[in-house]
Amino acid sequence: MATVKEVHLKNNTIVLSFDFEKMSDLLKVELRLKDVDRFVVPAYRDVFEIDVVHIKENTYEFTMDLDQVMNNFEMYNPNNQFVYFYVRADNEYVDLKVDETVQAELRRIGTIKNNKLATINLLRRKNGTLGLKVNKVGVKGTLDLLRFNEREVVLDVSAIITKTNEQLDLSKLSLKKRSFKDTPTVYSECMSLENKGKSTFSLEFEKLSEFSFEDEVTILDFIIEVQDQAIILGADIKKKDEQILKTFELMDLKFKFYWTKSHGLSIRVERIQLSASVTSISHNEDKSSVQLVFDQSSFRKISDLRCFVYRKNIVNNDSDIFPYKEIKLANTRSTDNNLMIELNFMEIFKGIDLVEQQNYSLYLVENFSLYNITYTEVIERKTKINGLNVNMTINSDGTSIVIAEEKPEVLNLGILGTCFTRSAFNSRENYYNPDYKQYFNVAYTHFWPSLLSLSSQPIEFKKDDYKDVKEKDLNQVIREYEKNTFTDLKNANIDYLLVDFFVDAVHGARKLSDGRYLGQNGFIHKTSHYHHWILKNTDQFDYRHPDFWNEWRDSCDAFIKELSQTVDLKRVVLIWGGLTKHYYDSDRQTMSFIKEGKFTNTQINLYNNIWERMNKYFITKAPSVKILDLRKYNYLADVDHTVSFGPHHYESNYYKSFIGELSKLIVNS
User: Fold this and answer.
1) Is the Cβ–Cβ distance between 154 and 201 less than 8 Å?
2) Among 285, 311, 448, 633, which one is least packed by beta carbons within 10 Å?
3) InterPro entries from the xrefs (predicted)?
4) Which of 232, 12, 209, 22 is nearest to 120 (CA)?
5) Residue 641 contacts residue 649 (beta carbons within 8 Å)
6) Of 395, 377, 444, 386, which Cα lies nearest the Cα of 416?
7) pLDDT score recorded for residue 336
8) What is the pLDDT of residues 58-116, one digit of tens each?
9) Of 324-328, 504-508, 608-612, 651-655, where does mean pLDDT reach its minimum?
10) pTM of the model
11) DSSP state letter for 348
């Protein structure tokens, strides 16, 4: 054990002595920058060591230059940013403990101000160990003047420290693309604006083509940045006066400057849907195939034309579409000056087995341009194929295809999921479902899976690294290394497979230097090997990384491909989970995680938006899967949850309803 003995502040330098239970000349003090954006499970952004001097007997001392700390650890908008201290001796790590006497001295030292943009406090953490907390100062960016011309927009901006009104020099003004349109602060692409003077910046409209615009709606935020040492603060730019904002079109995109709810300047980018009007419609005798005829002059270049059926979703009042299936060019032929596309519903929706209605749209794509297929009249075609009811409607608004099905069947469960899924199948406590085994048998469980890890190459497993894992739990650790899930699933003889994406949406995975991934389930992240080796020698790979969404999609595609060879996709159930913002206290009173300051509204919205997007991508690529969604019941978290308290652990009724809803889903299918 290591215990702080004395601490002194001298000219931005901390001199700290401590007692250590063993004599050693090889001691180091390791500073670890906490990854404060991680959800519940601890991780570190960066680590560096400080030399230790042996004073006498079991007493040691180290000197910490606070300027060195602020320069070693790059921090962006630090808010309750913690640095943890560990004493390293012979590759073993111990906490640096703080008693009440030293705690009083830390309080006397108080807030240290060695940086214009942040404050530092040494403190005793709740677990009695030494910590260093960094907090940003409030910074406000202001748009002083906005000028548009045909070619560019010019912005005069300024920044101040809100508490003192001190003027700040701007490091840069950037335009940042949100990774998820409804979640500011998480960005995937960034462009620095040209600096034309001390506080004047310009954006040429043509340079907007450097961004990728894959979605129907994309949001770009203007963000100012100021910097002192390695502390960087970013903020949106607020309007000073009413400004005339511009809307223009470029590359079949509409760019609209607007003020966000927080009065920051942003650009909303919408894909412009061109119109391709059908000249005639015909169908075969049983209406399982429909022919659409177009005038070729509607299109710019016929050779680049492709046709897709898109899965359609509505997210926060915006249409969100994913390409489901391409109508191959072999099904497209031109005669005279006409273009004909044949929609064979039997081929398009082959193999789909579902309970809930699914909505699709039909579009023609010419490079980046999207053509909405329209008709002057309202035409409706209804048919039945393979037990599916298919209803196609085409009018002046576009083409809609709705499929629905009702079909009975009945069971052995496999689970690739977390507490959102697995906890319902707990027969030991009344909180869950003591009688579930009368209806279901859980034949296989992979707890806390990550698609990134599942689709990765195997990693050598060393049992000696996990001596602190119980023998009965070791399989869950081995599975993350050996990637044997699909082999195990094939041998489990399951009837239905339940899946949720909590881990990837909230936690991500650890990425090795060679590109392989390791999942970080509960059995792993409680171990010494995780804290002292994995966190330091692998990278956290989650929603904040600009490549995360693309790599996750690739992993999801690989997962679906492997899954389809293991289990009938009609028998896969997606658990549509989410974090709740409210909970019941011990008196059964409704409380708010947000108002209580336990989580921010932005945090919970972020995780839920990511999770929902993953779900929607998955069901687009695997439309036969079933969906189990308990959000309609508005269940809350519970402070008396048997495992732990948080927005991911629900009241008892959630788990009881889970079994009921799953039963209904299976009976109906």
Assistant:
1) yes
2) 285
3) DUF6270
4) 12
5) yes
6) 444
7) 61
8) 999 999 999 988 899 999 999 999 999 999 988 889 999 999 999 999 999 999 988 89
9) 324-328
10) 0.82
11) H
